[in-house]
Amino acid sequence: MDDSAQEIYFNPWDESFRANPYPHYRPLLSGPPHLIDGLMPMVLVARYADVGAVLRDHQHFSSVQPRTELFQRRRDVFGDVPTVLFSDPPVHTRLRRLVTRAFTARRIREMEPRIRSIAAGLLDRAEQRGELELMADLAIPLPVMTIAEMLGVAPADYEQFKSWSDIIIEGDNTLPPAPLPDSVRTALAAIVEYFQAEIEKRRSNPGDDLVSVLITAQEESDSLSAAELMAFIVILLLAGNETTTNLIGNGMLALASNPDQLELLREHPDLMPGAIEEMLRYDAPAQCAVRFTGPDAAVSGVKLREGSFAFVILAAANRDPAQFPDPDRFDLARTPNEHLAFGAGNHYCIGASLARLQGTIAIESILHRFPRLRLAAPDASLIYKGSYFLRGLAGLRMAID
Ligand code: HEM
Predict the structure, then answer these.
(1) Which of 198, 223, 348, 356 has its CA at a distance of 20 to 30 angstroms from the CA of residue 399?
(2) 343 within ligand 1 shell (Cβ under 6 A)
(3) 61 lines ligand 1 (CB under 6 A)
């Protein structure tokens, strides 16, 4: 049976679909966008060219969540405050200009020694134990500690951050229009309370940290409101942590499952930048972006009903044979490799360089430290966390002896 004849099955709330969505993307890649009538009209955008076109067309494909009952949960999170992630120009242009001030190349470069030393400390602990639980020992704490450090908050608080962020991301997995779970409301309230105090501290005693830089952005003529600043901090915690954790986890799994590629990387460390790009392409940490259609929206000639929910499946586009020869092969020397794991167009990921840097440091540090690294239980089935949108492993045991 060829791919085009395969039945389309797309159910992000099905655990077995989430465990391996890739075979389900294949039939979507061989035809025009697929329409579904569910709680609202939906469209699955999967082909590389279509995904790129949708992400670059904010006029027909909006990032603003509709004000309907179904999306009440988003409003419960951010109220009516516009956020960089969920806005369109001109609001988006203004917010993006203000917040990118905090993500300069210099700031990211300056983080490098600190990220290396955090990674080394985390791996010391694993080495002393004689085993590596990749997620718990490194992939989870490294991004949280990095962002905690950038925000200028005490490293001791990082576990608290992580638990808030986990609770909110798990909330992703309850089917709308179910109300926002109480645990998520409580975690959000705790984040807001925590950062209100931090913002007050920075106002009286500013430093060189992200929160201080964002407060300065707030104090110039065009400025972030206090609510916008808070919403951005929450977005950073959510968008920056889980995704980077999953780059390290999914990337290491791909590497360890392809021992020839692991060997190749050991022999040619200069392949590392390309290896990180291939990890992002092959098993994208953010599987899917979301857009809402305005009037007259169409993809590849398929007209869409106004107000449709568009699943813009980055991870499917990254496996499109029309763009990537032999797309299911993990090939760290692949070039060109213009994947869409960080999105495209005006919402392109603000943290891409920081994520690449952390991914590089994590993988380099592990390979350097553990020359006999391999999967501890290659035949064991893998357990994924609850969110379809942010795909990542619950755990990954590695042998290091
Ligand atoms: C491997 C790690 C990461 C991946 C795969 C990733 C992926 C993405 C994607 C796909 C988008 C676009 C969403 C859309 O078009 O709707 C995005 C936006 C964004 N990301 Fe990342 N991200 C990562 C790491 C980070 C980090 C480390 C930070 C910050 C600390 C960050 C901050 C943001 C922000 C603020 C946006 C919103 C930009 C906008 O709407 O203009 N991300 N990211």
Answers:
(1) 356
(2) yes
(3) no
Asked if 391 and 18 count as a contact pair (C-beta separation under 8 A), the reply is yes
Least confident of 18-22, 220-224, 371-375, 393-397: 220-224
Look at the pTM and tell me if it is higher than 0.90. yes
Dump pLDDT digits (tens) for 289-327. Answer: 999 999 999 999 999 999 999 999 999 999 999 999 999
Range of the domain at 140: 3-399
Nearest atom, ligand 1, residue 63 CA: 16
pLDDT tens digits for 234-247?
A: 888 778 888 999 99
Taking the centre of ligand 1 as the mean of its atom positions, its distance from the CA of residue 332, in whole angstroms, is 23
Task: Tell me how far the alpha carbon of residue 226 lies from the centroid of ligand 1, in angstroms.
Answer: 22
- State the total domains in the chain: 1
The rounded Å distance from CA 122 to ligand 1 centre is 25
Q: Please state, in angstroms and rounded to a whole number, the distance separating the CA atoms of residues 320 and 317.
A: 5
Provide the CATH number for the domain around residue 144. 1.10.630.10
